[in-house]
Design goal:
Elements: H1 6-35, E1 37-39, E2 46-48, H2 51-56, H3 59-91, H4 95-110, H5 113-123, H6 135-160, H7 163-171, H8 176-204, H9 210-213, H10 221-230, H11 234-264
Antiparallel strand pairs: 1-2
Helix pairs in contact: 1-11, 3-4, 3-6, 3-8, 3-10, 4-6, 5-6, 6-8, 7-8, 8-11, 10-11
Length: 265
């Protein structure tokens, strides 16, 4: 912490809690309370029940959770592959080339995600590449939306790499592909894990573009939550939202363990 005096540290902690509790913690606590409620007519919910979670882990909600997991994993892997390759390629370009590549990869997140969804819908609703009505159009949209974050994360890590490692390996006779696989990628592993976690979390919560593209047999969980609350099932939707949040946190914790071991290595 940059504040060295004891009074200053206390002031920083007080400001942190004053801002954190009402802006971040309180809404999540209200959501958690609503997920266990059957009615809410006063300050606090009443009619506590666990029936909401019974529906949140069975039937359509469970299928939607599986759909979200598959979509997020595939989109994150594709984004990590494309973003990492582009970041490594951009490192060899001149300044203007890097700026152009940065602009191209940041374009999907510089505009509203609903615009990206509409663009994908229009582009892939006609032959020769007809994806409308399939799961692949949802995965493609998620990949476009999260690749920018993978690219930026890996690009920042590539710029911080010490070129001495690669030069040393090359001086010992290592071929470029060997330097890439055995020197550069292991050094980038913590950043790759962080980028994968960010892409996964963003994909799990994506709604705006998804709601324009999803077919009836490929409904991700955020769309299920939106549909449930739109029908007036607020408490059931809250339980599904808690399941989504818990699942995402568990995956991120697992990725965090991999990142910690990679950083130690």
């Amino acid at each position: 912490m940059l504040v060295h005096s004891r009074g200053g540290r206390w002031a920083v902690w007080i400001v942190f809690f004053v801002l954190f509790l009402p802006l971040f913690a309180l809404p999540l606590l209200v959501l958690l309370a609503a997920s266990f409620a059957s009615r809410w007519s006063g300050v606090l919910p009443s009619g506590w029940t666990g029936a909401n979670y019974s529906g949140a882990v069975h039937g359509d909600a469970l299928q939607a959770l599986t759909t979200s997991l598959v979509t997020a994993v595939v989109a994150s892997l594709l984004a990590l592959l494309v973003g990492s390759w582009a970041a490594l390629a951009a490192a060899a370009l001149r300044r203007h080339g890097r700026r152009l590549l940065d602009a191209l990869f940041m374009l999907p997140v510089a505009v509203p995600s609903v615009v990206v969804g509409l663009a994908v819908l229009v582009a892939f609703s006609r032959p020769p590449l007809l994806l409308n009505g399939t799961r692949w159009i949802v995965i493609l949209a998620h990949t476009l939306l999260v690749t920018a974050f993978a690219y930026q994360s890996v690009s920042a890590a590539v710029r911080r790499l010490d070129p001495a490692y690669e030069q040393m390996a090359a001086s010992l006779g290592a071929r470029p592909w060997y330097v890439l696989l055995r020197v550069r990628l292991p050094l980038l592993l913590p950043s790759l894990n962080a980028a994968a976690g960010l892409c996964f979390a963003l994909s799990m919560g994506e709604l705006s573009a998804t709601i324009m593209l999803y077919p009836p047999d490929w409904m991700p969980l955020p769309v299920e939550i939106f549909s449930s609350t739109d029908r007036g099932s607020l408490f059931a939707g809250s339980a599904v939202a808690v399941v989504l949040m818990a699942t995402t946190l568990l995956v991120l914790l697992g990725l965090g363990r991999i990142r910690t071991r990679a950083s130690y290595r």
